[in-house]
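Hi everyone, sorry if this is the wrong subforum. Our group has a chain we'd like a structural model of before ordering constructs, and none of us has done structure prediction before. Sequence below.
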Amino acid sequence: MLKPWLHKTTIEAGCDEAGRGCLAGPVCAAAVILPKKFRNEILNDSKQLTEKQRNQLRIIIENEALAWAVTMLDNTIIDEINILNASIHAMQESVGKLSIKPELLLIDGNRFKPYENIPYECIIKGDEKFMSIAAASILAKTHRDEYMTHLHATFPNYNWAQNKGYPTREHKDAIYRYGITDYHRISFNLGEQLRIEF
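Answer:
Right subforum, don't worry. Here is the predicted structure as tokens:
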């Protein structure tokens, strides 16, 4: 069972992103504020769940969360400011969309930038430790997967319905054979993309 909160009396928003390591498509981030009494036995890091479980949990989270928001930043923005900065900006935008202002942000990972003077804690593998971060990981993943599946109808050669834009052998072979689309990240270089700018 994941931890329901870091501080029981604080309004906490969990934040996470999906699509950071992809060759195509947007990065998607979510912020979620769960009720303090929220419990769910299968809630976990989205990567540990089946697609069916993620989709079932998405409905539960969206119905039962006190507040939630999702933000996507497309490949052109990723190319402009790099994937790490885009991931942080997407999380910040999601926090800004919440109908309740959080008093503390629980951030999955080890990097973030201050936002609206809201205190934050960066937590390595936070989506495996805290319910709110796991819930955010599920919303980010399911919303992005839905978007990439929709794009697949226009670009079936890349099989985004299956690989969701990640660098599978099939996806890389398709790029070699058909070239890139307007949705591919043309400047993607992992070493460079992990540089944070303040």
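For your construct planning: Residues 131-152 form the longest helix (22 residues). Strands lie at 12-18, 27-33, 67-73, 104-108, 120-123.
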